[in-house]
Each structure stands twice: as C-alpha cells, then as structure tokens.
Design goal:
- This protein has 277 residues and is an alpha/beta fold.
- Helices cover 30% and strands 21% of the residues.
- It has a 9-stranded mixed β-sheet with strand order 1-2-5-4-3-6-7-11-10, sandwiched between helices. It has a two-stranded antiparallel ribbon with strand order 8-9.
C-alpha cells in the first residue's frame, strides 16, 4: 500500500486535512501560466538526470504547484505524485491533473498521505523558506525552526532506505535574493540597498526567513542520511534578476567550484539527501 487513509476531499482531490478545510487560491494566472511553461523543461533538463543516478520508480513533488514537473516525469515512465495546499485543486482539475496522483496537505499540520518508506525520490523547490511563516514568506513564526525541522523530517519519513530527496531554495548565506522581498525584520540598511539595487539584499549572519546548508544538517541531525551539495546550473535562469546581470549570473553558477557548492557562495541551497537505512 502506497498511500495512507485520507481524511478529506476537495473537488475530487483527496488529502489529510481538517474537516471543513477551505482555502482561497492565491496563485495568479500569470504564475500558473509560467509554471505550465517552465516546469516540464526543468523536470526533464535538470531533475531527470539526477533521478537516473540511482534506481527509482516512485517520485514525489512536495509543493508541486500546477504539477507540471510530476506530470512530465510520469510521461517519462515514473510513478509520479504531487502534493500542495488546498486552493490548487481547481487549477489541477482545469489542467487535467489526475486525482490519483495529486493530493492536498494541511499547511498548518504538514502530513504526507504516504506510508513510511514508500517513495524512491522526493523533491521540493522554493518551498521550505515559506514554511513556518505567517504571511507565506517574510514574517517568521516563533516556532519557525521547529516547523521546518518537522516538515523536512516528514518528507524523510516517506523515503525508502536508499531513497533520496532533493531540497532547493534561496541560500541565506548568499548576499542577494532575486526571488523574494526582504525579511519582515530587515534592518534599515538592508531595505535601503534593496531599493537602490532592485534585488533583495540581506545580511548573511544571524537569521532571516531564508535557510542555509547548516539548517539542513541541523534539521536532519540524528537521522541516517548523507547530504551532498549540488549545482543549480541549468535550474536557475535568473529571470527576475536585472537583464544586464543574467548572463553573468548564469556563468557564475556554471563555473562555481564543487568545493563551494555547500557554502554561501552558492545562491541556492540544493541539497541531495540520501537515506542510508
């Protein structure tokens, strides 16, 4: 058995949700259209070669959005699933996403609807930095580190021994972030530089709502796993960066030495985690 018992169903899509769950769709039409365009290419061009490094059959996209990556990988012959928050079920239905492949999860009490050890390869991009916030990105809850620890360990729970997960998102140790606005507790100098440069500038010490490789190690401490830093070349297109800097940014990540991938020199955390037993 792959899935656990479901507790709710919205528009034909099942999930582990509180009774009476209602959530508005916060995905804009432009963002949904953009996902439909870029997700299949990212799945085949960036993710598929990594998946093929080890035997895998069952795949899981955590925070799948419109589900284009999971769908593209299913077309490549994998048993591929996606999970995301209530509100997306209407878009899934309009895009023809299968209710047997896409499931809903509770944003406040994250629980995946899969039994232990049932997934060969899980992946999640641009999600963990939103976990444990009050507004979806910039304002951290008092227990935000605990929420992220529990979230990451829940994904680890569904991996089989030898299974892997790839977790990616903007790196707190890198000075610039082109994907989000400033942290809600940003200092005046961070806000001033952000306005002047047109990209978010943040301190690389202390906390903000982003995360770093040190957080991954801390959240998974004590679990049987290895953690490997991967390049983001071929994944990041830097479309939100100023046009004059995009070519330079792409060249930077393409030529970043392997020894620096797990440091603040990498603009994104891209952690490949293997469950050893």
């Amino acid at each position: 058995m792959l899935t656990k018992p479901f507790t709710a169903e919205l528009s034909g899509y099942k999930g582990i949700l509180p009774t009476g769950t209602v959530r508005s769709d916060v995905t804009t039409e432009d963002y949904a259209d953009a996902q439909e365009i870029f997700q299949p290419g990212k799945a085949r061009g960036f993710l598929l070669p990594i998946i093929r490094e080890a035997p895998a059959r069952t795949l899981l996209d955590v925070g799948c959005g419109m589900g284009g990556m999971a769908t593209a990988l299913e077309e490549e012959g994998y048993q591929s699933y996606g999970v995301d928050l209530p509100g997306l079920e209407r878009r899934w239905a309009s895009a023809g996403r299968s209710p047997d492949r896409f499931f809903l999860v509770d944003p406040d009490r994250f629980a995946l609807p899969f039994v232990d050890g049932s997934i060969d390869f899980a992946f999640t991009f641009g999600v963990i930095e939103h976990v444990g916030t009050t507004d979806g990105h910039a304002d951290r809850r008092p227990n935000w580190h605990t929420a992220r620890r529990d979230w990451l360990r829940e994904i680890f729970r569904v991996l089989r021994p030898g299974g892997r997960m790839l977790v990616g998102g903007p790196n707190r140790g890198f000075l610039l972030d082109v994907a989000h606005g400033p942290d809600s507790r940003a200092a005046a100098w961070e806000l001033w530089l952000t306005r002047r440069l047109g990209v978010t500038v943040h301190r690389i010490w202390g906390d903000n709502f982003l995360w770093a490789y040190g957080d991954v190690r801390r959240y998974l401490d004590g679990l049987p796993c290895t953690i490997e830093a991967r390049s983001v070349a071929g994944f990041l297109e830097f479309s939100r960066a100023p046009a004059a800097l995009r070519g330079l940014a792409r060249a930077y990540v393409r030529h970043l030495p392997r020894a620096l991938l797990g440091t603040g020199f990498n603009p994104w955390v891209m952690a490949l985690i293997t469950r050893t037993h």
